[in-house]
Write a structure and sequence with these properties.
heterodimer, A: 830 residues, alpha/beta, N-terminal domain of TfIIb, Rossmann fold, Dimethylsulfoxide Reductase, domain 2, 4 domains, seven-stranded mixed beta sheet, six-stranded antiparallel beta sheet, 29 strands, 28% helix, globular, B: 163 residues, mainly alpha, Ferritin, 81% helix
């Protein structure tokens, strides 16, 4: 069967029900550009989505050398043919007329077109001059979660062993560093324990600060399909907003933001008090239970109820839900990672699974999620403030091993301190010790906290800024050199999603103008800099994506993220495969820790751990005495009040977040007409009670002010937690008269005008969800509704307040339900 | 006055001073955001230590004062904050930061040794109340030391090689 659905009006499409422990049936979603008949497609080229972390496998439709559509891959276990709205429509941004097609350099204050040789010559000359005058610490790299593995790995080698700088991090610092840190604190090493397949088997799914319906819409389709089938799962939702997840939840808790540790400690308290624990698992696989039990002994639901402002009875119900099921899956995302005490809270979710023995079997799994499509690669390749292959910078044997892979002396690779995190890199640029910052594939002038500060840093005369991107972003407008990059579909590479599934994304069409793959840009730079290994040979020995992948395989060998069993040919033949994939696991690995904790031994662990309050690093001696046998570590944490709380001047709590129709700073989704029209401008969410008290209504233009800055948006009245304001963080200035920031008649529009420069001391992830703000009326609405979508968590409390969000015929995608799942089996990756 | 009350009094003074110094450093280095926020959090530990030492002191017949406020000297604090913002684009305050972190570390180390002495005295005199106080407070003093040590280790390569 085949029929069409408006996938803006119905982001999750129609249902294909299935029962618990059954295989998720396929549903192939296809969207072709207006006027393109299926028969006109000349080639389908294998790829996967780069607009979220789900890893939705898709094929790109090509006709006459152009991308003309996409189709989900039913052979892939991640999405079984389904695509979300961003997957269906986002590709159109690749052909946007305002793509960068030539390099730009700043001359007399203006960005001027030039050729590649001039631009790259300038970058290399400045690098050499800085190395001579000020040393490697004067050069920093800030990359992304949206390039391919081969590109991160190349960047890591050239930065860490070529330049020899400590200062390389990704914007993944803003989205996934707490996930990585929480896994390191508990399991000694990064690596997602669970698999999306666990959703097929789970009885209870607990989502902590994770609006999966909007951030990974295809996995939400999986849950929706299970709700319609036999033995559906029950949900626990912890979220201050009325998300779709909250609507379907058996228990929904909407705590005061910044209080996750108090809530989780109460859940642990109840779990232990009622003996809902697996003593055999605890004894066999963990250390630290007594300390955890002592820490949460006083954390009663009544105690937490006062801090979190949720009824104690609801906390008890939540504890019963997660404490009495035989198959618990938990997922964690930005509501925890970008909030106060981020790592401490994420670790308590790990603790819940460990004391309940809910690990390493179907339906008993833990997913510390990430936000961006290739954030996992940033982490494993060592471009996210780690060493490649989850090696431990404090362990000399690991550094020596890495140096051997690169054929350099161990001293070449800086490891006298942890790799510098992004917030500190920007601080070094602010105080003037960092003089060159190369930003690839990210837009800090919209995505970082406290934007007025970030713009000031980037605009400094003494800082040489290189920006490598698809468009003239807000950040690119402040750069000294702008390098036009190719994007997915225009280059080949691999990417790994949040459940360790590696996909190949192949080149389908040529990039526009002179735009080049990021890999080619990095390789060109390495050649110009003439980086050498210790024998005088070239440091970087590869010249294209596949040879880069082969080089990475050698670096990953024997590490938790072992890729040695993978190849481009294999990924082409099959579809996504979950690492580790090596000689012992040639078909990939669905779940980690199926047979004990494997990467926590002092000799192999990635990190010796940190203090969950101060972020102070532990040394190997302490780690060895705490965890000599390499078990999972139950780390307790006390609740601390947030650093900024509402007062008379700033009476609201303020949180920022996402919508299903946009990704990051909207550089791509704002250029896809269906997605842009679904959520064309910034808005501000307020609760019904607060709106009534202040005499405000739908569509009123309001200003949100914090100690850092202000933004304006039209009000949407929802069932959000009273006392809390929500602003989506996607909107910046590229499509306003302001250009790179407010001014020239453009008021503040970016949520990050208001956010605070404060980060979790453990993961160094900034706190976007714990600020205080004031709200004032600018002008009454003119009858037009707020631009917020009605289909999602931003739905108005009064359904009649705004017309339903829809996309019309332009957003019609077709679907087909094949008779059976054509390939493979449910477990593993193939 | 015996040895225990003498040590209680000395440690009380030391924790008061550390609480004050942590707040002062937090204000002086407001543009070093992690130092600012964590030092503020850690001053709360020392304030609590002061309060509990005063309680224990009372049980031992000595009167010890209250902890200092969050921001002990308003005008000076504002000046420190303004001074910190004025030099936000200069590298030289990094040296001052390293010196301040060193002083905090030494102050915490001094307190740690006094906690050690109290623990030993508590065991020798079989004073279980005093031992409980030390067991709950001393680990946090050690964590204050580990934090200052970590910050010195992480920041000094850049600060000392860029001037």
């Amino acid at each position: 069967m085949e029929d069409a659905t408006d996938r803006i009006a119905r982001p999750w499409g129609p249902r294909v029900p299935y029962g618990r422990h059954e295989t998720w049936p396929a549903r192939v979603d296809t969207f072709l550009a207006d006027g393109v008949e299926p028969g006109a497609v000349q080639r389908w080229v294998q790829s996967a989505s780069i607009l979220h972390s789900d890893g939705d496998a898709m094929d790109i439709a090509v006709a006459d050398g152009r991308m003309v559509g996409v189709r989900g891959r039913d052979v892939d276990r991640v999405n079984r043919g389904r695509l979300g709205p961003k997957d269906l429509f986002g590709w159109q941004a690749n052909a946007s007329r305002d793509r960068l097609t030539r390099p730009l350099v700043r001359r007399d204050g203006r960005l001027t077109e030039t050729d590649w040789d001039t631009a790259m010559g300038l970058v290399a000359a400045r690098s050499r001059a800085l190395l001579d005058e000020r040393g490697p610490g004067s050069i920093g790299f800030y990359t992304t979660g949206q390039l391919f593995l081969e590109e991160y790995y190349t960047l890591t080698v050239l930065a860490r062993a070529g330049i020899g700088t400590h200062h390389l991090d990704g914007n993944t610092r803003l989205c996934t560093s707490t996930a990585a840190e929480a896994l390191k604190e508990t399991f000694g090493c990064d690596g997602q324990p669970g698999s999306y397949d666990d959703f097929d088997h789970a009885d209870v799914i607990a989502l902590f600060g994770h609006n999966i319906a909007e951030t990974q819409p295809v996995q939400w389709m999986r849950l929706l399909d299970r709700f319609e089938g036999a033995d559906p799962p029950r949900l626990l939702c912890v979220d201050p907003r009325p998300t779709r997840v909250a609507e379907r939840a058996a228990v929904h808790l909407a705590p005061r933001v910044g209080t996750n540790v108090a809530l989780l400690n109460a859940l642990l308290h109840e779990t232990i008090r009622h003996e809902r624990i697996d003593r055999d698992f605890i004894a066999a696989h963990t250390v630290g239970f007594d300390e955890l039990a002592a820490r949460v002994a006083d954390c009663t639901p009544k105690w937490a109820a006062r801090i979190c402002d949720v009824p104690a009875a609801r906390i008890e119900e939540a504890a019963e839900l997660v404490g009495t099921t035989d198959a618990l899956v938990s997922t964690v995302l930005q509501g925890v990672y970008q909030s106060h005490q981020a790592t401490a809270a994420a670790v308590q979710v790990n603790n819940l699974h460990l004391i309940r023995g809910m690990l390493g079997r179907p339906g008993a799994g833990l997913l510390q999620m990430n936000g961006q499509p290739t954030a996992q690669n940033t982490r494993e390749c060592g471009a996210n403030g780690d060493l490649p292959g989850f090696r431990n910078w404090q362990n000399d044997a690991h550094v020596a091993d890495l140096a051997a892979v690169w054929n350099v002396e161990p001293e070449t690779v800086p490891h006298f301190a942890p790799p510098t995190h992004a917030m500190q890199i920007f601080r070094y640029a602010e105080q003037g010790s960092l003089r060159m910052l190369w930003i690839s594939g990210t837009n800090p002038a919209v995505s970082m906290p406290e934007l007025s500060r970030i713009r000031t840093i980037l605009a400094q005369e003494r800082l040489f800024t290189v920006v490598q991107d698809l468009y003239l972003t807000e950040t690119a407008q402040l750069a000294d050199v702008v390098l036009p990059a190719a994007t997915w579909g225009e280059k080949t590479g691999t990417l790994t999603n949040a459940d360790r599934t590696v996909h190949l994304s192949e080149k389908a069409v040529e990039p526009p103008g002179e735009a080049r793959p990021d890999l080619d840009i990095f390789l060109d730079y390495a050649r110009r800099m003439d980086f050498r290994d210790k024998d005088g040979g070239p440091l970087i020995t590869w010249d294209g994506p596949e040879s880069a992948f082969e080089a990475w395989k050698r670096c990953s060998a024997g590490r938790p993220c072992d890729y040695t069993g993978l190849s481009y040919a294999l990924l082409r033949d099959t579809s996504g495969i979950q690492w580790p994939c090596d000689a012992r696991n040639p078909e990939g690995t669905a779940r980690l820790y199926t047979d004990g904790i494997s990467w926590a031994h002092p000799d192999v662990c990635e990190s010796y751990g940190k203090d969950l309050v101060t972020g102070a690093a532990q040394e190997v001696v302490e780690y060895r005495s705490l965890n000599p046998d390499g078990r999972a570590m139950l780390k307790a944490a006390a609740y601390l009040p947030p650093h900024e709380e509402p007062d008379d001047e700033y009476p609201f709590q303020l949180t920022t977040g996402r919508t299903v129709y946009h990704f990051h700073t909207r550089t791509k989704t704002g250029r896809a007409p269906q997605l842009n029209d679904a959520a064309p401008d910034v808005w501000v969410e307020i609760s019904t009670g607060d709106a009534e008290r202040l005499g405000l209504g739908e569509g009123d233009l309001v200003e949100v002010t914090s100690r850092r800055g202000a933004l304006r948006g039209r009000l949407r009245v929802t069932r959000i937690r009273p006392g809390l304001l929500f602003v989506p963080f996607h909107y910046g200035y590229w499509d306003t008269d302001g250009g790179s920031g407010p001014g020239r008649g453009t008021p503040g529009r970016a949520a990050n005008e208001t956010t605070v420069t404060d980060w979790d001391p453990v993961s160094k992830q900034p706190l976007f969800k714990t600020a205080a703000a004031a709200l004032t009326l600018v002008e009454r609405g003119d009858g037009r509704p707020s631009p917020a979508p009605t289909t999602t968590a931003s739905a108005p409390a009064d359904p009649g307040a705004a017309p339903p969000t829809s996309g019309g015929p332009a957003a019609h995608a077709t679907r087909r339900e094949p008779a059976g799942f054509p390939h493979g089996h449910e477990e593993g990756a193939r | 006055m015996n040895g225990i009350t003498l040590t209680l009094r000395t440690l009380h003074r030391g924790e008061r001073r550390l609480a004050h110094d942590l707040v002062t450093v937090a204000e002086r280095h407001r543009t070093e955001h992690e130092v600012h926020h964590v030092a503020t959090d850690l001053s709360a530990w020392s304030r609590e230590h002061v309060r509990r030492l005063a309680e224990t002191g009372a049980e031992h017949g000595v009167t010890l004062g209250d902890p200092p406020g969050h921001s002990p000297d308003g005008v000076l604090a504002t000046l420190r904050k303004k001074a910190s913002e004025a030099v936000v684009h200069r590298p030289e305050p990094g040296l001052l930061l390293l010196r301040d972190l060193r002083e905090l570390h030494l102050a915490a180390a001094e307190n740690s040794l006094h906690w050690e002495m109290l623990a030993q005295a508590a065991q020798a005199s079989r004073d279980s109340g005093l031992l409980a106080l030390v067991s709950s407070c001393h680990p946090r003093t050690l964590r204050q030391m580990r934090w200052t040590n970590t910050m010195v280790k992480n920041l000094s390569p850049q600060i000392l090689t860029s001037l």
